[in-house]
Design goal:
The structure holds two protein chains of two kinds. Chain A is mainly beta. Chain A is built from no helices and 19 strands. Chain A has a twelve-stranded antiparallel barrel with strand order 1-4-5-7-8-9-10-15-16-17-18-19. The chains are: A mainly beta, B mainly alpha.
């Protein structure tokens, strides 16, 4: 029983929800109750593949012979450093490529947005046989390159600076845990290359109001020192935006909602500092997003910068 | 616990400050910043300017206005004073919006409707495509699909009708010489710049009347929206103390009468048949194959019939149909020829290696589905310039009519070229050529953007010579954007510019002789 808090010290964890049209893969690198101890650094690479054939045009689900299957590959560098036992700093930097299997639209590639995250274990207490913890997580992301956002559905991202706050509650008893998290994302206007565009009316500006978003996650599963297996449900909702009109092209300020279900597995090799992660998710229901099926896998390594005492 | 909360406060406060201070929100639409129109010259002689279709302004029916001393006119003045005694902030915003100019705002409204209706129809379950039907405009796909040729024609008819209506209005303004309400009654405030132009009939109402009447034909599903805009504009003239109701009624009536002349032409200009029939579509590939060239095929899935293949038959404004044929450039490079292969290789290199700067140019000029189209883009460019000129309403209308007749005629000549040669797009010749914007569903040669841009830049450069090479540079960039985007060969763009310039010269010739000066 005394080792229970140890379950909550872990290497960084990621699971990707690729809401293509616009990849927001980097937005969810921090939605777990795991912390890395002080002066430990965890580095990793994660590969993500996401693809969809069907998408929702407003509420209407369809395919598109001029897109075929839209595939996205994401290669993400991830780091997590324990500033203290209760405060971690994380970063993730994805390189994204897109490809449409039909039609003529050229796939895009480039460095997407770097996300910096502060993850703070605000509260932790034994309750009954279990342990409850609360995290406050703040993150910000900025584009790493001048990629084209206004080229949906093949653009690699929205090119918006954003900040987000997330609250996370986790309860673990024995090796069973359940967690819930809520996030609010504020996103900057973006600058596009056109100086007018149509939303529900013509707007004469090169600036586009990207809607804010919220995100709720419920996850539950098995978590031991070595092995983690969990099911994850998430709901992302943009607060504003507009629907793609019938047979129109998507646009960065569309409403983009998605409900996903997924699973995540992790295995840590004892003493070696090596950890493997894998998983996937699927969009059950969406609005102005692709019905993406996503799989990912990553390798992480834990470095200890504490003075060696062994 | 208390201590813990205190401990939590500083990071929370900092986080909140960072969070709410870090984001930039607030899109400013530049058209909301346009100044109040205060014409530098009221163009009092505009009744002598050469109209486009009408021949005799005096033939229209505009009854003499009520005498200044009549009870009817006094009642009209009182209506204004009652309105002005209690203006809400919404009403003041309405005044601010419309006072930028009637021709300008109606042009923007038209651009908005073009963008709204510029969506290619979604396919039927069997892979065929439904076509909009003007006799049943509300059924999907709604009428119209305002693609570039349709849009060019719509801009032209609306602008030309507004112009002729204003020329006719000037005839009656001078005939009746009614002074403005704020001149006749000091209790009426002028909430827009005072004008020495006689106010009967109202030029705003003439423009609104002509536009509403044209739009009934061009955008039949939008009539309630358009009529609401017109009512709002009439209310603005009253609230601003600029016109009495009688001047508005007379203006709307005159505008409607003049527009009916244009509507009659539009109904008979063959645009209604431009979509063609499947029997006519089947004959098109021979246009290329008999020359030994590769015929165009639709790259859409499912394959879509080509866009308005008989638009070449539409009656132009600036020249006759024989001139359409005369303006047609020589043939494109034959598929498989050395020149063709070189150009296709160049397109492939842009497809693979366009810089981010070139991609920005592609996007800036794309003007594809869901936009106001290339002619609309040139209207927006012209409007941004014209607002700096303090034109009178009639000169606004005349200059936009010149621009838009050039755009419509450029569309006719370009479509004639496209379907006369019916050649393949680069991505058809080489499927490895991926595009940086949507590939248009019609033959390649010559580039529509280049035709539109050549014609627009030629007339705009004539109208605004002090802008130097600004419009020419923009046109060159617009043309090259289609090569950077890998949807056109270089010669499509270069030849399209030349043809567009030639069409634009017809507008210049008209401008030189219409009596309006530069």
């Amino acid at each position: 029983m005394k080792s229970l808090p140890l379950f909550l010290y872990r290497c960084c964890l990621i699971f990707c929800s690729c809401l293509a049209f616009s990849e927001i893969a980097s937005a969810q690198t921090d939605a777990d109750a795991l912390m890395i101890p002080k002066k430990f650094y965890c580095a990793g690479v994660l590969y993500t593949n996401s693809s969809w054939t069907n998408y929702w045009e407003g509420a209407y689900k369809r395919d598109n012979g001029n897109i075929g299957k839209l595939s996205t590959n994401i290669y993400t560098l991830i780091g997590n450093y324990g500033l203290t036992n209760k405060l971690d700093i994380l970063f993730s930097a994805p390189y994204v490529t897109t490809n449409a299997s039909s039609g003529t639209l050229a796939g895009q590639h480039g460095l997407q947005d770097i996300t910096l995250t502060l993850k703070w274990l605000a509260f932790q207490s034994q309750i009954g046989k279990g342990i409850i913890s609360m995290h406050a997580i703040a993150s910000g992301s900025i584009p790493l390159s001048n990629y084209e956002a206004d080229f949906e559905p093949v653009s690699i991202g929205l090119h918006s600076k954003s900040v987000a706050i997330r609250g996370l509650v986790n309860y673990q008893t024995g090796r069973f845990f359940i967690a819930g998290a809520g996030q609010y994302v504020r996103r900057n206007d973006i600058i596009i290359d056109r100086n007018s565009y149509y939303t529900t009316q013509l707007v004469y500006s090169n600036q586009v109001d990207i809607p804010n978003a919220n995100n709720f996650i419920v996850s539950s599963g098995y978590r031991s020192l070595r092995f983690n297996a969990e099911a994850i449900f998430s709901q992302t909702t943009t607060l504003g935006g507009f629907d793609i009109r019938k047979n129109d092209m998507p646009f960065p300020s569309n409403t983009m909602n998605a409900t996903t279900a997924g699973a995540l597995f992790k295995y840590s090799f004892s003493n070696s500092g090596l950890e493997l992660t894998g998983g996937g998710n699927y969009v059950l229901k969406g609005r102005n997003v692709g019905q993406a099926a996503t799989v990912f896998g990553g390798v992480f390594y834990l470095f200890d910068f504490n003075k060696k005492t062994k | 616990m208390k201590k813990r909360i205190l401990y939590m406060m500083p990071p929370l406060v900092i986080a909140a400050l960072v969070f709410f201070g870090s984001c930039k929100k607030g899109v400013i639409d530049r058209t909301t910043l346009y100044p109040v129109l205060n014409p530098a010259n009221i163009d009092l002689n505009a009744d002598t300017w050469k109209p486009i279709l009408i021949t005799n302004a005096s033939a229209f029916n505009v009854a003499a206005p009520d005498a200044i001393a009549s009870p009817a006119y006094v009642a009209d003045l009182n209506e204004i004073k009652a309105l002005q005694s209690n203006l809400s902030s919404d009403q003041k915003a309405t005044i601010k919006y419309w006072s930028a100019g009637a021709v300008l705002r109606w042009n923007e409204i038209l651009r908005d409707l073009i963008a709204k209706h510029n969506l290619p129809p979604y396919q039927n379950a069997d892979g065929s495509y439904p076509a909009p039907n003007s006799a049943n405009p509300f059924a999907y796909p709604q009428f119209p699909f305002s693609n570039p040729p349709y849009a060019a024609r719509a801009y032209a008819y609306v602008s030309a009708a507004q112009y002729d209506a204003l020329v006719a209005a000037y005839y009656f303004k001078k005939l009746y010489n009614r002074t403005a309400p704020y001149t006749n009654d000091p209790a009426v405030q002028a909430l827009v710049p005072k004008s020495a132009l006689p106010s009967y009939p109202s030029e705003d109402a003439v423009v609104a009347g002509a536009t509403v009447e044209m739009m009934k034909l061009l955008f039949p599903t939008e009539i309630p929206f358009i009529e609401q805009k017109a009512a709002e504009e009439m209310q603005y003239r009253l609230m601003a103390g600029a016109n009495v109701r009688g001047e508005l009624n007379a203006g709307q009536s005159l505008g409607t009468q003049v527009a009916d002349v244009f509507a009659a032409r539009a109904r008979a200009d063959r645009a209604g048949k431009a979509i063609g029939t499947s029997a006519q579509w089947a004959l098109l590939p021979a246009h290329a194959t008999t020359r030994g060239d590769q015929a165009w095929i639709s790259l859409e899935s499912p394959q879509r019939p080509p866009m308005l293949p008989l638009f070449n038959k539409v009656l132009p404004f600036l020249f006759d149909t024989l001139t359409v044929v005369k303006l047609r450039p020589g043939p494109p490079n034959m598929a498989g020829s050395v020149a063709f292969n070189q150009e296709a290789a160049e397109v492939l290199s842009y497809s693979k290696n366009s810089t981010r700067g070139q991609q920005a140019i592609v996007e800036f000029w794309a003007d594809g589905a869901g936009t106001y189209t290339p002619p609309g883009h040139w209207n927006a460019i012209a409007a941004d310039e014209f607002v700096k000129q303090n034109y009178s309403e009639v000169r606004w209308a005349r200059n936009l009519a010149l621009l838009n007749m050039a755009e419509m005629d450029a569309a006719i000549v370009c479509w004639d070229t496209k379907y006369f040669y019916f050649n393949q797009r680069p991505s058809q010749a080489n499927p490895n050529i991926k595009t940086l914007t949507g590939i248009p569903n019609f033959p390649s040669y010559s580039s529509g953007h280049s035709n539109f841009s050549g014609a627009a830049s030629t007339i705009l450069t004539y109208l605004l010579p002090d802008r130097g090479t600004k419009f020419t540079d923009m046109a060159n960039q617009a043309a090259m954007s289609r090569l950077y985007g890998a949807i056109h060969y270089r010669s499509d763009c270069e030849v399209g510019l030349v043809t567009g310039n030639a069409v634009g010269q017809y507008a210049v010739k008209r401008a030189q002789t219409d009596g309006a000066g530069n």
